[in-house]
Amino acid sequence: RTIMDSRACVKMVAAAWASGFLNAVMHSAKTFSEPLCQGNTVDQFFCEISQILKLSCSFSYLRVVWALVISACLGFGCFVFIVVSYVEIFTAVLRIPSEQGRHKAFSMCLPHLAVVSLFVSTVIFATLKPPSISSPALDLLLAVLYAVVP
């Protein structure tokens, strides 16, 4: 309770919800303002922004970069927060005197860390992969890895 009181918890939840909402509103506003010339069928199982932008009449690399920069800024802030949190958690766990207590604490943290790592690595690869290796099957596989598996 001395490290994480209810006020700090409310602030962190509010920041997470606000950044997610801001990201969604900005992407939705930009995406829905684009006219679609190539139909409205997306080769994914959900409407991913990059797939919708490919259907746009005025597909522009700058629009993709704009979406990427906004997401990267918000995502980097979240990533830094997660890393700092894990450093604090691991520091606290290593101070536990008993081996059994440390093992129990690590067994609670490591699965979450694995899921976060899978999510972050697949999102980074999906976003930064060169167009030369892009294919609908690879895009679908990456989307499943970062949207469904975690």
From TrEMBL:
Keywords: Cell membrane, G-protein coupled receptor, Membrane, Olfaction, Receptor, Sensory transduction, Transducer, Transmembrane, Transmembrane helix. It comes from the Eukaryota. It holds the Pfam family 7tm_4. Its main location: membrane. The keyword Transmembrane helix applies. The chain crosses the membrane at residues 64-93, 105-126. One of its GO terms (molecular function) is G protein-coupled receptor activity. GO terms for cellular component: plasma membrane. It is found in: Cell membrane. This is Olfactory receptor.
